[in-house]
Amino acid sequence: MKLNERSLAFYATCDSPADNSGFLYKRGERHTAYHRRWFVLKGNMLFYFEERDSREPVGVIVLEGCNVELCDSAENFAFAIRFGGSKSRTYVLAAESQAAMESWVKSLSRASFDYMRLVVRELEKQLQEMSRGLPGGCGGSQDAAGPWKPKPSGLEQCRERLPALPAVLPKENGCAVWNNVPGAEERPPDTSGCGGHDEDEEGAPRPPPLPPRRRVSNGSGTARAGAAVAQSPSTFCRLHEQYSREVARLRQDWQQKRRGSQP
Amino acid sequence: MRYNERELLSLARQPAEKAAEIRMSVPKKGSVLKKRLVKLVVNFLFYFRTDEAEVGIGPLAGVWEQQQLCQDLPGAFSLSLAGFIEEPERKYCFECATEEQCQEWVEALRRASYEFLRRSLIFYRNEIQKMTGKDPLEQYGISEEARFQLGAHRQ
């Protein structure tokens, strides 16, 4: 298998921030001697260099599908990166202190793309469930051309920053982008502001249109709303009113902050 | 550079986010477009020769954030190698059957970056925190990790 080595070496040595770095002892494959190497973790790739200022890495360990565990070794503070296959090699590494070992074990065991994707999906689900629980809004969808999940909701919706509620949960990690560089917002212009309003039920400023399922019948939307399930139409209306005011206020705060941070 | 080839091969055989036979060329002088089975698995792009069983795979090392991904002509897109953005001939070029297929690939590749995932995670974390006042990463024990802090990563 050919690997894009120059590209990898560039990635390893460029100034993009590392998720962890430091000296570790690496046990040789055939011989059990340990060699001190400079390790750099970026994303799901663990590079190792002969020296801290070496121009390119000696090697890289791709961390998908691995287990990181402590191991018994004559060497102190040793841990292992183990892969699933029968013929797979186990990488035995040793840190220089208990703290360093713990830090590495933690960061390596959570480095995989798979793990990150799981966490993102989980958070995305949580956010969607919370949005559903607020009858007043959050039915926004995003333009397919933007950095948002390109899930066509099929309806003209208010383009809020809150993620859309797709009818089918996404199979892939289609996620929103948040530029976390302070002071700069890298969002495309089409996700700012609202596309339009169909209904103005609550009387709160800039009320969002109701999501599709709620247009069909009065109670169907609240069936999944968890905490917002209403016992009677009047309770529902009251909760509806209450939540929508809160959401509208949050959204305003949010947009003000955004406007304030734009250059 | 040494790498864990066995694991990469195993990764290449896993279910892909996207897979298709596309015509592509590699960054080499005189390289022509050839039909290859292209597979996107996590943040790695593999390609296989279609007449042989999984031989000659070349991952693009999933460093999209360092690479230029651009749509050239309609139905075609290219990936410039990290570090070689100045050199236009150092590109992987892909020609899709339809414009729609091309756009799907560009979108899938854009979202296949680790950095994209990280930014998404930070975004959702922030949103949930704003709504609930609680940090959703605490349950995972990763709230203190530097890589998830706002403003921690610049591109």
Automatic annotation (TrEMBL), chain A:
SUPFAM superfamilies per UniProt: PH domain-like
GO cellular component: clathrin-coated vesicle; cytosol; early endosome; recycling endosome; trans-Golgi network
Matches recorded under SMART domains: PH (SM00233)
Alphabetized UniProt keyword annotations: Cytoplasmic vesicle, Endosome, Golgi apparatus, Phosphoprotein
Disordered as annotated region, ranges: 132-155, 180-235
Keyword Manganese part of the UniProt annotation: no
Classification via InterPro entries: Boi1/Boi2-like, PH-like_dom_sf, PH_domain
Gene3D superfamilies: Pleckstrin-homology domain (PH domain)/Phosphotyrosine-binding domain (PTB)
PH domain boundaries: 17-113
Compartment list: Early endosome; Recycling endosome; Golgi apparatus, trans-Golgi network; Cytoplasmic vesicle, Clathrin-coated vesicle
UniProt-listed PROSITE patterns: PH_DOMAIN
GO biological process: endosome organization; receptor recycling; retrograde transport, endosome to Golgi
Pfam families, A to Z: PH
Family annotation (PANTHER family): SESQUIPEDALIAN, SESQUIPEDALIAN-1
Family of this protein: Belongs to the sesquipedalian family.
Role this protein plays: Plays a role in endocytic trafficking. Required for receptor recycling from endosomes, both to the trans-Golgi network and the plasma membrane.
Protein name as annotated: Sesquipedalian
Upper taxonomic lineage: Eukaryota, Metazoa, Chordata, Craniata, Vertebrata
From TrEMBL, chain B:
TM region(s), chain numbering: none
Gene3D superfamilies for the chain: Pleckstrin-homology domain (PH domain)/Phosphotyrosine-binding domain (PTB)
One GO CC term on file: early endosome
InterPro entries per UniProt: Boi1/Boi2-like, PH-like_dom_sf
Highest taxon, organism lineage: Eukaryota
One Gene Ontology biological process: receptor recycling
Protein name as annotated: Pleckstrin homology domain-containing family J member 1
